[in-house]
Amino acid sequence: MKGRIPEGEREARMAWSRLTEPADQPATTLIRSLGAEAALHRAMSGRLSWTERLRPRLEVLDIDQDLAILRRIGARVLVPGDEEWPSGLEALEQPPHCLWVRGPEHLAQVCQRSASVVGARMATSYGQMVALDLGDGLAERGFAIVSGAAYGIDAAAHRGALASEGATVAVLAGGVERPYPQGNAELISRIARVGLVVSEMPPGSAPTKLRFLRRNRLIATLSKGTVVVEAGLRSGSLHTARLALEHHRPVGAVPGPVTSSVSAGCHELVRTRGAELVTDAAEAAELVGEVGRDLAPVKRGEVLDTDDLSEEEAAVLSALPYRKAVSVDDLVVRTTLEGRQVLGCLGRLSLRGLATRDGDRWKKHARGGPAARLGGAP
Fold this sequence. Notes:
Elements: H1 8-19, H2 25-34, H3 36-45, H4 55-60, H5 63-73, E1 75-78, E2 99-102, H6 107-111, E3 114-119, H7 125-140, E4 144-147, H8 153-163, E5 168-171, H9 185-194, E6 196-199, H10 209-222, E7 226-229, H11 236-246, E8 251-254, H12 264-272, E9 276-277, H13 281-288, H14 311-319, E10 326-327, H15 328-335, H16 339-351, E11 355-358, E12 361-364, H17 369-373
Parallel strand pairs: 3-4, 3-7, 4-5, 5-6, 7-8, 8-9
Antiparallel strand pairs: 1-2, 2-6, 10-12, 11-12
């Protein structure tokens, strides 16, 4: 090893994040059995055959250098037991050894009321608009937005939260001081200033395909639920959604055109995976929020003054002309109702402003407008 032997659980966990890839099962088992520091000494002793693969990384391990990087970039390391350690990670069979974190927010606190918003990198303008609105609307309702800072849906959701001055958490597959994708460097830098940038990979680490896949389990369990906005049938966002479902988090999916391949994964989530259809921030808040507190308003069509008419009243109103008044006898013929029924209906329609009397004749009231003319006689 280049530097000194790590001392204490925190430094030992920092070392383990250097020595192993995310979700390394033998390492996780050993740490659970002995604790991070004792497990590290066991690994360094060479008495375990599987630890031989760690030897090349052990030889270049330098915790002092990592601590210096942390100070330089203004970051911190969280380990299980810290007040800021998010409780959602306790659901993972192979949780991160530690989290490298940049930003002023308190990770555990923001995760208590949070939603992951994920989706396609090659998103359509529709998908980006929806993700932006979800990030904005959820942030206005006090939810932190968790995502992966990728192009497309992720970036739009982060920007929506920032637009409402809400909290947002970017979970990276590489080091927290190494923005990826580079095209989102400014966005990630802004999140680090006002929100949180999080990774289980130590500084300097490059993102890889495996690290992206492992990163998804953090996005799925840091938050209270996940909403997928646009995803193809092989999208990594579906992996995040499946992980969330496996860990008993609610999952929502935004519908798109049935002809859109970039929405096919969302439709499949609803059709076969138990995801709920979500169309706006209010519905997303109800999905991931508190029972009774975050109910979405019931969506209704336009309420017309003809909606609750009885069948007889609707028949009489439909038979009434708009311009030329007709007699009760004419209405009896047009409706096949009895005269007394027609008169009763006309009285009630008149009280509601839908019919008007002209001598002994009747017609639709002009105040009824187009709604009153629907189905009426000329």
